[in-house]
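pinned: reference chain
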Amino acid sequence: MPRTFVNQLTIPGTMVEAVFHVAQKDLRTTKKGTLFISAKLRDRTGEVPAVMWDATEALFAAIPQGGYALVKGRVGEFNDAPQIVIEAMRPARDNEVDLADFLPKGPGDPEEHLARLKEILDTVERPALRALLDCLWADQDLMAALKRAPAAEKLHHAYLGGLLEHTLSVAEAAVLLARHYPKLDRDLLLVGVLWHDIGKTRELHYDESFGYTDAGKLVGHLVQGVLMLEEKIRQVRAAGTEFPETLAHVLRHLVLAHHGEHAFGSPKLPMTAEAFALHHLDNLDAKLHGFWRDVAADADPSRRWTAWNRMFGGALFKGFEELDANDGESGQ
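pinned: its structure tokens
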């Protein structure tokens, strides 16, 4: 029998029996003093909250966070969104887990994306930056990770190949922006685009599920990206190519400042034109991708607004189908 995926859990009362990835679990107490489990369950199509009443500490301990559980229950509703009301669950056996159900893949071809990204970066002119790019392209392990890694655990481009797709999209936009604003240092902006999220190849794990590595939790991808940059700059210098320290500082700044605000994890605020441009290009691509994804995935395609959206802090307007229709009203 085909499994039921998260994006199919739209009708309250629908029975569910499937294996899910346990992204989060908490053992809580009701006002009456009984225990219940609050969880977040995932598959390749998305994430859904779940609750199990009358739980026990033993059951809670047996369910592996970051692992897989066989869940039986029904679709309920909480805050105008689906949730699973769990009636029974246990750790899933190895032969019950199909990793293809849990690792979403991007719509594009990573090889084609990488080839186009190289084509754009091949227009960089500074000898030091070209040498830096040569070191990067020659790192086969890093290239393999770049082609496979997601851009995030769940916020945007959260699928295999998502990091490369996001990086290419920002690079394409940077080419257009640099053409419109010729005072921008095009070389710096493009190399900054390439490097801004490369630390995510080490921040995230993406073999059996998506999540954060120890390095990701302790260091984060901004600092990790700078460490990776330092490694490649040392290789360039060891090979005999001069790499000015001032140029290295500017590149470090592009990586460290690209989140734009201290509150969003940037240790430095943007202080160069290229850093401002990179921050806004990165944010725009992430936000637009998230917007279109969440509108397309909304549980009720007949309504004009989505449910409340955590990424945007409110409901999203999906538009009027009749916006361009001739409804006989002149608008006067």
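why pinned: The radius of gyration is 23 Å. Strands lie at 15-29, 35-43, 46-52, 68-78, 81-91, 204-205, 211-212.
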